[in-house]
Structure formats: structure tokens, C-alpha cells
Amino acid sequence: MVDLGVLLPDIAPGSGGHRKVLSFCNYFSEKGGSVEIAFASGKSNDELTNIVENNYFINCGKIRNYAQIPIKCNKAVATHWSTSYEVAEWGGCQEKFYFIQDFEPLFYPMSTEYIKAYNSYKLDLKPICFGKWIRNFLLDEFNIHAPYIRFPVNKSIYKPKSNLLFKNGFLKNHSEQQRVLFYARPSQPRRLFSLGIESLIALNKINNNIEIAIFGEDISDNSLPSNIKNLGKFIDLNELAKLYCEATFGIAFSSTNPSLIPFEMLSSGLPVLDVETGRSIPDLETCKAYIRCEPNGYKIAERLNNILNTNRLPKHMSRSATRWSRRLPSEKQFCKDVLDRLNISI
Question: What is the pTM of this model?
């Protein structure tokens, strides 16, 4: 029987949600703990192991296809609504937990998936929330009082840099041209891709001297306006950090919980614009370099243009972003905090 058993959905390179879970598995394994990770996937054990070790971490413990075979473990962790029902049925565990990164019913219209995701928070699993936003949502919706883990940043990667040249040419020179960077994930409706493109088109009409680029997914250039540079998906985190340092302002929408993207942008000295959803974002609301705007493409564009063309304001916001992000925990501290919530001593 292993110390820690974790059930994850299928995996591919570049998943931020998987990276967070695998990071504390890797940390615990390196400290001498025994870990087994199962993926609800059609991939073979070797395929899954190669993806994890080549794109994430190399010491996460035993990795296998779930194949409906429960992990024999002391501490069990579900990581998605689709895995929560499985973990809830496992026998022989001392404790069962639910690591919650989003309010997942919002991923769907009213449907079977919505109802099952909503009901997953009522299962006999101990919740651990990633951030205050989801903690507050569970409290408001279910009167569940759950602990939360603060958003971390790898400060050895995401830090302000100067005089960088990016190999794909987004930064053409060292001029003072303003550059806006949008985290674009059309495959994930919660990232509000169409609103982002609408805003960028409006921004270009207001001021065509601002360079605009998107990143996050492999998107056909034929589906984008010609004035928007498509940088695609980034697997190399160091190259992603360089990209943040070369931009003037970032746009990162997430309507179901902040992702790590705005925190990494801010740590790199890149101010961030998000959309107003009607719920506060306590994890970010103290940062003066993080602004929210109503979901109107023209007003978002107008707000950005006003900021970018106000003397010294972008540089002031960049410095403010860097100062604020210093208080964020490291990835190592994040791992320690998760293990503490799992009642695991190292």
C-alpha cells in the first residue's frame, strides 16, 4: 500500500492543471514518500510515463493507466469531477480528498456533465481548494468550509528580464512599441476566446500602432485577422517567460477560477487585464497591476489603449506587478502546503 494515490484525467503535454498536481506528487516522492498515479486514459502505461517524465517531472512515483483498478493507498486524491466518483468508492483508504481547481459545473451547459460535476462536491471527500475564489464559491453555494492553497509562481523562471530577443520574432527590436499579448484557448469556452479576439480587433481599429499577439493553442492563422500574430502553444516554460517579458500588457480571461497565467505574467512584470464576471477575485484583487473590465470588446480595447498611451503608466504598472508578486509562494511552498492539507508529514 502506497502513502499517496492520485487519480487524474487523461494527460497531454502543457496542461497547467496536471502540472500542479504532479508537482506535489514529485515533491513528496523526492522526500521519500511512496506515490502511485493513475490516469483515466486510453494510453498505455509506457505512454503515460513518457508524457509525465518528458514534459512534467521525473520522480512522480508509479504511473499507470487506471483501467478501473483502484489504487491501494493511505491517502487518496481525486482531481476532477470525473475522478471524484471513482475515488469515493475506493476501499481501505485512511482519508480521501478532492483537490478542486475550478468550479467545474461551469465548464458545461445544463447537462448530465453539469449535474454530475455539481454533485461531486457533495461526495464523502475532503475538499482542498486551489485559491480563495473556489473556496468562497463552495462556501456560498454549498456552505462548505474548505481549506485553500495559495497560487504559487516559479520565480526562477517567471521574473522580469531586459534586453531579450525572442526567437520567433514577436519582439522585432528594442523600440518602445506597445505590445499586447492574449492567452487564447478556443477549445476552452471559459477562456472567452471570441471576446478576446473581438477586443483585439477593436484595439487595432483604435490604435494600429500597437503590436498584438496571441498564444496558448495551435490555432489556424486563417481564422484570425491578419494584424494578430499567432504564436501557438508553448511547452518550454523558459520561452514562455521570455514572451511575457517582451509584452507591455497581458490579457488572460478565466471565468471559473484564476489560472496560473496571470500570476506568472505579473511575476514577469507584465500587467494583466481580465473580464468582470460579477464575482470578486480575492487572489488578485490587491494587485494594482491587475485590472478588470466589463465584457465589452470596445470598452476593453478603449481601457487598454488609454493605459498604454498614458505617460509612464505601463512601466509603473510593470514595477507594481513585480513588487506585488514577490509575496506569492514558491512552488516548493505550494507542495508543502498541499501535503500539510493532506495530513502528510515529511
Answer: 0.90
